[in-house]
Design a protein that fits this description.
Layout (H helix, E strand, L loop, with lengths): L6 H26 L6 E6 L18 E8 L4 E9 L7 E3 L1 E6 L12 E3 L7 E3 L4 E3 L3 E5 L4 E8 L8 E2 L6 E6 L10 E5 L2 E2 L1 E7 L6 E6 L1 H4 L11 H11 L7 E6 L17 H10 L4 E7 L2 H6 L10 H17 L3 E5 L12 H16 L5 E3 L1 H5 E2 L2 E5 L12 H9 L8
Parallel strand pairs: 16-17, 16-18, 18-19, 19-20
Antiparallel strand pairs: 1-15, 2-10, 2-12, 3-8, 3-9, 3-15, 4-7, 5-6, 5-10, 11-14, 12-13, 21-22
Helix pairs in contact: 3-9, 4-6, 6-7
Length: 414
């Protein structure tokens, strides 16, 4: 038994051991935050803007971007992904906040939370890089609009963006307005700049479905800021059906995108080049729906370009299928919808579309088939979209997108 003289020395030893163990525990908790298996991507977007060939582009300096996004699954904590993939210089971020939207550019002030990066409010993102924010305690309701505000104190250079979001976003007058309830607006923007994904901590056993494609997945032709894209309708359908587990539904569509090549600096890298970044890098993706190829056909039908063949598109599909399966992701092929009457329609292109759809339906190389072609076609003219489903004979409208989502066989995801 220790003497009175020895007790302080033993107590000090125990205290030091306790302090050491406690510090290890704290370090482990901090280090494990980002590796928590409950993280899941609730929303994502794919950067589309490639650097222009000239230097004439808009820059942001001493202004705040206010970006409006729509969640799928909810959660109790959030982390943001910001990217400078296509920038021509490092981007300095002065401050970032997240909040719930009221309407337009206004936020619910009680929900506002500051977002940090490695414990600091500001960060410089190197050219070509992506950063994860520190986890922030923030209740993300399912199927709700969130607002992320980003202050850029210095000249931004060329900003990485999803150029055609089908969502009104906002640019402030001068200053850091990330905490403002009502943003002093200098302009509006169709782009989601810098922000590429939001992950949440979700306690249930759920995973994510990535919807991959072009403008039809991106939601072009649906109501502006209305969240009427077919992936939005599909997410609402999943949440309303108690017979199936919930999934996050994330959108990896880019308007104008192609499987095989690039046609315009607004339309992003070809799918095979962007697949790792836009799908495989997201959190807990277990399923994906692939609907892409109509731009490969249509955009190569005009001018002096050689028509892209079904075989070329199918070769691209096989690459994506193999890479998805290597990650244990089930991949469902969605047929290309009719486009007769669209600006780039040709009879030769229609032959290639039918050949692509034949492969999707019958090859057995996908894990399942979603026949969007049959859902939206005009029964009296199957080469065209039903007139009540479209305004331009290429992109569905709100009703067309809802019909697509409603037709998906949920047994594919059980």
């Amino acid at each position: 038994m220790p003497t009175i003289r020895e007790l302080p020395r033993q107590l000090m030893r125990y205290a030091l051991v306790f302090l050491f163990v406690s510090q290890i525990g704290i370090a482990e908790v901090t280090a494990q935050q980002h590796s928590d298996p409950r993280w899941i991507t609730t929303w994502a977007t794919s950067p589309s803007t490639l650097p222009p060939t000239n230097e004439d582009y808009a820059e942001i300096e001493d202004q705040t971007l206010r970006l409006v996004i729509h969640s799928s699954v909810g959660g109790e904590s959030a982390r943001l992904r910001l990217a400078n993939y296509h920038g021509d210089q490092p981007v300095h971020i002065g401050a970032v906040t997240i909040a719930l939207q009221t309407e337009g550019s206004s936020i619910q002030s009680a929900s506002l939370q500051s977002v940090s990066f490695g414990g600091t409010e500001s960060i410089s993102i190197p050219r070509g890089a992506v950063v994860l924010s520190d986890p922030v305690s923030f209740i993300v309701p399912q199927l709700s609009n969130l607002v992320v505000s980003v202050y850029l104190p210095e000249s931004s250079g060329f900003l990485t963006a999803h150029a055609l979001s089908n969502q009104t976003n906002y640019i402030s007058s001068s200053g850091d307005h990330t905490a403002a309830t009502n943003l002093p607006i200098e302009g509006e923007s169709p782009a989601w700049n810098l922000l590429t994904a939001i992950d949440v901590i979700h306690n249930e056993q759920v995973s994510a479905i990535a919807t991959v494609g072009d403008s039809i997945t991106d939601g072009w032709g649906s109501t502006l800021s209305g969240n009427q894209r077919w992936p939005n309708h599909f997410a609402r359908r999943l949440f309303a059906d108690n017979s199936i587990d919930n999934f996050a539904v994330v959108n990896a569509g880019i308007s104008g995108n192609q499987v095989t090549t690039e046609g315009n600096s607004l339309f992003g890298q070809n799918l095979q080049a962007r697949f790792e970044r836009d799908v495989l890098a997201l959190s807990k993706v277990t399923h994906m729906v692939l609907m892409e190829g109509i731009n490969d056909i249509g955009m190569s039908s005009s001018g002096d370009a050689q028509l892209t063949s079904a075989d070329e598109i199918i070769a691209g599909y096989r690459n994506i299928i193999a890479r998805a399966h290597a990650r244990g992701i089930k991949i469902f092929g969605a047929t290309l919808t009719p486009y007769e009457g669209a600006a780039y329609y040709t009879q030769a292109g229609e032959i290639e579309r039918q050949a692509v759809n034949q492969f999707i339906r019958t090859s057995g190389e996908f894990d399942g088939v979603i026949d969007f072609d049959s859902v939206v076609q005009d029964p009296n003219n199957p080469g065209r979209i039903l007139p009540s489903f479209t305004q331009d004979n290429l992109h569905p409208n709100d009703a067309g997108y809802k019909a697509m989502a409603d037709a998906i066989d949920l047994d594919l995801f059980r």
